[in-house]
Amino acid sequence: MDHLENDVAALRALIEESPTPIALYVGPEMRIHIANKAMIYGAWGKDTSVLGQTLKAALPELEGQPFHQLLDDVYRSGIAYEAKQDPATLIIDGRPVERYYNFTYKPLLTTDGQVWGILNTATNVTELVLARKQIVDVEAQLAFSLKAAGIGTWDLDVTNKSITWDDRTKELYGFNRADTASYDQVLRYMHPQDRAVVDKAVRNALDISSGGVYDVRFRTIGADDNKLRWLHCKGKAYFNEKGEPYRFSGIAMDIGAQISADERLRSAEQLTQLALENIDAGSYFIHLPSKDITYTPLFTRVLTGKTELGLERDEFIKHIHPDDVIVRRKAYELAVSSGSLDFEARYVWKDASIHWVRVLGKYTYDDQNDPVYLSGIVQDITAEAEAKQEQRKLLWLIENSTDMISLMDKSGDLTYLNEAGRRMLDIKVLHEDTRKRAAYLMEAELDRVRQVVDPALLTDDRWSGELMFRNTNTGEAIPCFVTTLLLRDTSTGQPLGSASVVRDMRPELAAQKALIDNEELFRAITTASPAALWMTDAEGSITYVNDIWLNWTGRSFDEHLGQGWVEAVVADDRALAGERFVNDFTQRVFHESQFRIQHTDGTRRWIVCTGHPQYHVDGGFKGYIGACVDISEQMHLQQQKDEFIGVASHELKTPVTSVKAYAQVLQTMFEREVDDKKALMLSKMNSQIDRLSSLINDLLDVTKIQSGRLQFHDRHFDLNDLVLEVCEDLQRTAHKHQLITDLHSTAPVHADADRIRQVLTNLITNAIKYSPSAHSVTISSSMTDTEAIISVQDHGIGISADKQPKVFDQFYRVSGSNQHTFPGLGLGLYITAEIIKGEGGRIWLSSVPGEGSIFYFALPLSSGQSIVK
Ligand code: ADP
Fold first, then answer.
1. For residues 479 and 465, is the Cβ–Cβ distance under 8 A?
2. Residue 794 CB less than 6 A away from ligand 1
């Protein structure tokens, strides 16, 4: 124990002198072995009577506080205990006092490691603790008042670039998800236009030379609520000895209310926002390094058709129409160099509908000139694109118009000229010289345009008329027809300029001239024509007669128009000529008529008038075009010929008759002398004389018919009897052909029997003549209620259908080239037909070439009355 005693004595002295409260407890019961004054009086507030007592007995107020337990633990475990700023409640001067101590319980060990006591040192830190507490309270109070004032606090961890913010600050950023956020993230919740400012202010504050002050106003766009807020942030940066910032904190407040309504309105942002909303445009902001995208609700609606927030940038890219992916890519490539993005592309909405979207954007660059942000707007331009398409079509029309189309400003300078206009005016590019009126209008027109056209435009808003344009290169004058419209500002009504449609009249004028030339040519031809020419409209009114007609008739052009032309026809022929024309015209058939006109030379002229119906290309009837030929001369010659034939045949008839008489006398004489040879020759001579006289008779008949002197001595007779008589007669000379009759009883006819005999003779001799290989000719008779009909049928060469109507014409011979095979004059059928017509009957035929012909004639049955002709 000596050693212990010595030690204790040394320790005691040390402890007694120490200003630090020290006590030594011995044994598990914690008997106070030593306690210095600082402990007894200072820390405990007791007196020396505590010495030798157990701690529990000396300081009963510690009951219920952790100290006894702590001491027990140290005594049992041998491990020291240290506490900082621990509160302890003690009874001092009879009153409980709360104090704070930094204290240690240190175990004291024997040499064999047993705990025999505990050294307790303690420092009263009550004042310090209380001061700290006061600070905390003040801070809490401050936080409370900040909160009450709506002010948020924030703290930027400079090293990690992360921000810790209170609820209010989070609220002000419209971001409620986490207590900390990265600095970049926070920047994104700011208004795109303010980010650069804020970023700069932060950098500035973190530079020690700035003094670390941070004071900035900016806008945030709520990440969660999309609300725009005006914030005022103040802060301060703290720097270490190396001048590096280690802390940067401050406050944030909503100053929305401070920004007056006027200011807000004036705020470009508001206007932009308004404008954007007005045009249905959404805005976006992309932080390029992180690809983070911030956007307004309209942005998603424009691109996807749905308002959906929190989407990644790639989500939107997926909506691009596959055909427009390249357009977008090209636009981005271009944007790299130009700094701005501008393209139109189709986006496929979530409902699969396709929308045209215009995307505009601008890059923001950092100090290294690297793009950091891309921000801009997107706008649904589907309607606009459609309108544009319409506009494109319109433009196409304008560009491809054959007329010049132009726009002019107020002074008449061209501002737009279509392709046709550029060609006409010979303008490649509109520049200062070519756009001027003086360049594209002839000089003589300039005054008129100023004095007439411009004022007219201002009063009527339009002008049309002719103007001489000018080839800007060659100076050639171009006659044009112009329609100009004044263009007015739709809101103010002020004239802005004008638009013109200009027709180059040169082709038209050339065509017109060609037409005039044509007309001249036409007139020259018609004048040169020996024939009179005429033309009618679709109603049959004369619209044109040429000079020849005018010269013949001596009447004026106008007098012939309409139906006036008939007045030129002599009164006797007028009705027939008119009737013929109307008849053919209504049937639209070839017109032919003959009439006489009174010629200016006092003579009457025979005119043959022909005309053909005319049709338009579309098939519509146009009218007639025809000619009139003066045939008076031919008529005269014809007449002379007829007269000559008449005289000649008449003169021939007398000698032929006497030759016939002599021949007959001679024949009788030879027969009597039984000189057969001579008698035969004379009989042949006789029949040739018969043929000759029959030819002369035919010629005489023709002259009689033409002069209207053919006479009929009609009486009632039986046709069948006549047929039999004629056949008997003809059979005598016809050796090859048998004349077969097939007669049926007919009522008597009233006609000239000699002429009808002539008819029958003609038809039967023709039937024999034109059927050289046949052996029979059949003559039949029949009767209807009104007519007796005779037919003569042969099995000869026949007549083709086209020739059939002509066989009754004078001098017409089908077998003209076979003159030697079938001799004749072509008068027989003419005379025959004239006789039948003269008797009021009809004549016709049916024939098949190579098979034979049947000639028919019909005579009216006699009504019992004698008709004298
Ligand atoms: P022609 O004197 O030539 O016989 P016609 O007036 O009797 O004169 O007949 C006119 C033309 O009609 C003849 O040239 C002939 O070509 C034709 N013709 C008349 N009758 C017949 C007939 N039976 N068969 C064939 N052709 C006929």
1. no
2. yes
Compute the half-sphere exposure of residue 106: CA atoms within 13 Å on the CB side of its CA.
10
Phi-psi region of 374 (alpha: psi -120 to 50; beta: other; left: phi over 0): beta
Report how far apart the first and last C-alpha atoms of the chain are (Å, whole number): 205
Q: Give long-range contacts, CB 8 A cutoff, 24+ apart: 154-162.
A: 154/233, 154/235, 154/249, 154/250, 154/251, 154/252, 155/247, 155/248, 155/249, 156/183, 156/202, 156/235, 156/247, 156/248, 156/249, 158/206, 158/237, 158/244, 158/245, 158/246, 158/247, 158/248, 159/246
Pairing of β 604-615 and β 749-751: unpaired
Closest-lying ligand 1 atom to the alpha carbon of residue 826: 8
> Cα–chain-centroid distance for residue 184?
52
Q: Is 512 helix (H, G, I), strand (E, B) or coil?
A: helix
Instruction: Look at the block and give the residue holding tokens 């010929």.
Output: 641
| Cα dihedral sign, 569-572-574-576 | negative
Q: How many CA atoms lie within 13 A of 448 on its CB side?
A: 11
- Whether the Cβ atoms of residue 625 and residue 535 lie closer than 8 Å to each other: yes
Cβ atoms of 427 and 472 closer than 8 Å: yes
Beta strands in 320-470 (DSSP E): 340-348, 354-365, 371-380, 404-409, 414-417, 462-470
- Spatial distance between the Cα atoms of 232 and 170, rounded to a whole number of angstroms: 14
H or E element: which one contains 503? strand 495-504
| Buried b or exposed e, range 820-858, using 16+ CB within 10 angstroms | eeeebebbbbbbbbbbbebbebebebebeeeebbbbbbb
pLDDT at 524: 73
Answer whether 859's CB lies under 8 Å from 841's CB.
yes
Question: What are the average pLDDT values for consecutive 10-residue runs of the chain, which has 869 residues?
Answer: 59 72 89 87 87 91 90 92 87 83 88 88 83 73 69 84 84 78 83 85 88 86 76 86 85 73 50 61 83 84 86 88 93 89 92 90 82 85 79 80 89 90 91 90 92 91 92 93 87 85 88 76 72 89 89 90 89 92 92 92 91 85 89 85 83 86 87 85 86 87 84 92 95 92 90 95 95 95 93 94 89 65 84 94 95 96 53
- Cβ–ligand 1 distance for 853 under 6 Å, the answer yes
Rg (CA), the chain: 70
Q: What is the pLDDT of residues 652-679, one digit of tens each?
A: 888 888 888 888 888 888 888 888 888 8
The mean of the pLDDT values for the chain is: 85
> For atom 23 of ligand 1, which residue has the closest CA?
767
> HSE (CB half, 13 Å, CA atoms) of 222?
14
Tell how far the Cα of 807 is from the centroid of ligand 1, in angstroms: 7
pLDDT in tens, 57-116: 998 888 888 999 999 999 999 999 998 888 888 887 788 888 888 889 989 888 888 899
**Sequence-distant (≥ 6) Cβ neighbours of residue 73 within 8 angstroms:** 79, 81
- Name the closest-CA residue to atom 20, ligand 1: 766
Can you read off the two tokens belonging to residue 360?
């505009």
Give the Cα separation of 793 and 741 in Å (integer). 10
With a 6 Å cutoff on the Cβ, whether 834 touches ligand 1 is no
Q: Is the CB of 829 under 6 A from ligand 1?
A: yes
Q: Round to whole Å and give the CA distance between 188 and 195.
A: 8
According to the model, what pLDDT value does residue 863 have?
64
Question: Strand 95-109 relative to strand 213-221: parallel, antiparallel, unpaired?
Answer: unpaired
Q: What's the pLDDT score for residue 724?
A: 96
Rounded CA gap, 457 and 469, in Å? 18
